[in-house]
Here is the input.
Amino acid sequence: MLATAYFGYPNLLRAGMQINEGVPTNADVHYTGIAPSGLRFMYMVSDDFSIGVDLMYTQSSARYTTLDSSFFNNEWNYVTNSYLTKKSRFRPQFRFDLHLGSTGANFDHYIGLAIGGNLRTREIWQNNILVSTQPNALDFVVPVSARVCYGFRYFLNYNLALSGELGLGGPIFQGGLCYRF
Here is the structure.
């Protein structure tokens, strides 16, 4: 059994906030979030093949204030509005890894394929009042997620390893710690 905790880069959910959510370009925007991160549990069926579950989560939010104006009764009225947009994504996936021949006893590298769910949430807050939980029409939302990747583990001792992965369908780069039971 292998258990891996990891963090990934980049946060693509955060990268698309300004474009997909209509955040004004002239606003002073404060972004926060959680980098794509997760837990992976794998069972080594043989020396060459493992199966398991990958649980990926990422979150991003944008907070900004706008000064809106309107012309009413022959005068300009100015109103300051604060906005908060929160988005999150959880991808539980079943995973299969094909382990490639290693160059040393401490090095394991593999190619992986995963498929699973794609659960997204979105909240729009205006002046601390929740105004929408509807999906954004500009987000391409499919209820299924997939990942293809190449990864490695370097065991520092029998149980503990450093891990890294390069893939599509989740974090492009990820690094973490792996524990072998």
Summary: The mean pLDDT is 92.
